[in-house]
Design brief:
This protein is of the alpha+beta class. 38% of the residues lie in helices and 19% in strands.
C-alpha cells in the first residue's frame, strides 16, 4: 500500500511534465502554419474602407445622370461619345482659395480601345489664385478630355486648363448638340448650378491627382495611369459610374 502511494505521488510530476511538454510542442508546431499563410491584404487599409471615396463616386454618377436627363444639357451625349476621358466634380463649393478641398474632389475615367470605361482615379479641381470666386455657392463641373496628349498630361502631372498651358478649353453652351464641334478644343467644360449652365470659365484652374484617395479606395497605392490605362485596380461598386456613362439606347436595351 505504501509502495502504491509512493508510485502515485511520483507519477504526478511526470504527468504534469508530459502535458506541459505536449502543449509547448503543439504550440511550436502550429506557429509556422500561421506564418506560412499571410493575410491576403498586406497593404494598409483605409479605416473607412473607401467609404468617403465611394460617396464621391456615387455623387458623380448621380450628377452626370441628372445632367443627361435635363433637356438643357442635350449635347452631353455627343461629347461623351467623342471624349478620350471624362472628369466629374460633383460638388464644387465656392471657396476663397481653391476648389480642392472636400467640395472639389472628383473622378477621372478613360475609355479603352474596346470602348469600355475604366474604374475611377481621384482628382481635385483647384482655383488658380486667391480670391477667384464664381457667382454661385455650389456647382457640378464636368470636363471632357478630347485627345490622348492632354489625357497623358493629366496622368503624368497636374494639368492646368487653358490655352496658355497647351490644353485649349472649350465651353459647352446650353442646348449645344453640334457634334461636329467637339474636336476643336483639347478639353470642354460644362458647369451646372441649380439645373442651368453657370457662366464660368475654368481657364487657369488646375486638376491634380489625389494619391491618398486612390490608396484608400483601392486598398493599395495606385497611380492614375495604373487605374485608368493599365486597368490594374478594380472595384465592383464603381460600376455606377460606368452605368451613368452608358449610351441611352444601351441602357434601355439592358
Amino acid at each position: 500500500m505504501k509502495h502504491a502511494l509512493l508510485n502515485s505521488r511520483t507519477m504526478i510530476p511526470r504527468t504534469v511534465r508530459w502535458v506541459a511538454t505536449t502543449v509547448v510542442a503543439s504550440t511550436l508546431f502550429v506557429a509556422p502554419i500561421g506564418c506560412s499563410h499571410p493575410r491576403p491584404a498586406q497593404v494598409p487599409q483605409s479605416k473607412t474602407n473607401g467609404e468617403d471615396q465611394q460617396a464621391i463616386v456615387e455623387r458623380a454618377a448621380m450628377a452626370l445622370t441628372r445632367m443627361r436627363q435635363n433637356p438643357r444639357f442635350a449635347g452631353v451625349d455627343a461629347y461623351i461619345s467623342h471624349a478620350q476621358a471624362i472628369m466629374i466634380f460633383p460638388r464644387v463649393i465656392k471657396a476663397a482659395v481653391l476648389f480642392g478641398g472636400e467640395g472639389g474632389n472628383g473622378v477621372l475615367m478613360s475609355r479603352g480601345t474596346d470602348g469600355r470605361w475604366s474604374n475611377p482615379a481621384f482628382y481635385s479641381l483647384g482655383a488658380p489664385s486667391i480670391g477667384l470666386q464664381a457667382g454661385y455657392q455650389e456647382a457640378t463641373v464636368v470636363l471632357f478630355i478630347m485627345d490622348r496628349r492632354t489625357l497623358e498630361q493629366a496622368l503624368d502631372s497636374s494639368l492646368t486648363l487653358g490655352a496658355s498651358s497647351g490644353a485649349t478649353l472649350g465651353t459647352i453652351g446650353e442646348r449645344d448638340t453640334t457634334a461636329n464641334t467637339v474636336d476643336k478644343a483639347n478639353v470642354y467644360q460644362m458647369v451646372e448650378s441649380g439645373g442651368v449652365y453657370a457662366g464660368l470659365s475654368l481657364a487657369g484652374y488646375v486638376i491634380s491627382a489625389r494619391a491618398q484617395h486612390n490608396l484608400e479606395y483601392y486598398g493599395k497605392a495606385r497611380a492614375p495611369r495604373e487605374i485608368v490605362i493599365e486597368r490594374m485596380a478594380q472595384r465592383t461598386d464603381a460600376k455606377v459610374l460606368c452605368d451613368a456613362l452608358t449610351p441611352r439606347g444601351s441602357q434601355m436595351a439592358n
